[in-house]
TrEMBL record:
Gene Ontology MF terms: DNA binding
Positions of the HTH tetR-type domain: 6-66
Classification via PANTHER family: HTH-TYPE TRANSCRIPTIONAL REGULATOR YJDC (PTHR47506:SF1), TRANSCRIPTIONAL REGULATORY PROTEIN (PTHR47506)
Classification via Gene3D superfamilies: Homeodomain-like, Tetracycline Repressor, domain 2
Record feature DNA-binding region, as residue ranges: 29-48
Keyword field: DNA-binding, Transcription, Transcription regulation
Biological source species: Clostridium scindens (strain JCM 10418 / VPI 12708)
One Pfam family matching this protein: TetR_N
Name of protein: TetR/AcrR family transcriptional regulator
Length: 195
């Protein structure tokens, strides 16, 4: 695909992501995406044949970016605490911003797609994210920056508290103190006392 085609696809995903965050997955139509991007139906269908295809690619991009972010920073030899703080700072900001949350759209998209955990794509996303977090936590343990912890349990605390707050942010006001308390506790669980 040429550069212009790649730019168009990125524009579509950016605009669609905003729509999914605002309306959820089920309420967004290809017409909505055409209106938001300024593309004709033919122009949009040249790149994507459904909202599901677009959403799949958005989710894959998010996971790839998170994986690359963790992996590249660890390969650079950055402090595990620094990597953790960067991620927790971003999570704190995202938990407050209910308008930008894809949590409802993700729930709608994956609902009813495969009953068994092993077949459910959301469960596959969970496993992928867990592997990334467990690698980061082990990196911190190996560098003696993090306590020896149950990596899976800590990941569950992170992902389910984060997603829970993102879901609640759609139906109630989330003040800054809620994500701050959560991320502070996660940090206390992981980070050895400095100094």
């Amino acid at each position: 695909m040429n550069r212009k085609g790649m730019e168009t696809r990125q524009h579509i995903k950016t605009k669609a992501c905003q729509l999914f965050a605002k309306k959820g997955f089920k309420e967004v139509t290809m017409k909505d995406i055409c209106d938001s991007t300024g593309l004709s139906r033919g122009g949009l269908y040249c790149h994507y044949d459904s909202t599901a295809r677009i959403f799949d690619e958005i989710l894959n991009d998010f996971m790839d970016n998170q994986d690359e972010e963790f992996r590249s920073k660890m390969l650079e030899g950055l402090s595990a605490v620094e990597i953790l703080d960067d991620v927790l700072d971003r999570y704190r900001e995202e938990m407050i911003d209910g308008e930008a949350s894809l949590s409802v759209a993700i729930f709608e998209y994956f609902s009813g797609r495969g009953n068994a955990c092993e077949e459910n794509p959301l469960y596959q996303q969970y496993l992928f994210s867990r592997r990334m977090w467990e690698e980061l936590i082990q990196y911190g343990i190996d560098r003696k920056e993090f306590y020896q912890v149950d990596k899976t349990a800590v990941f569950d605390l992170i992902v389910f508290s984060y997603q829970g707050v993102r879901m609640y942010s759609r139906i109630m006001t989330i003040t800054e103190d809620i994500p701050l308390r959560i991320t502070s506790q996660i940090r206390k669980i992981l980070v050895r006392r400095e100094g």
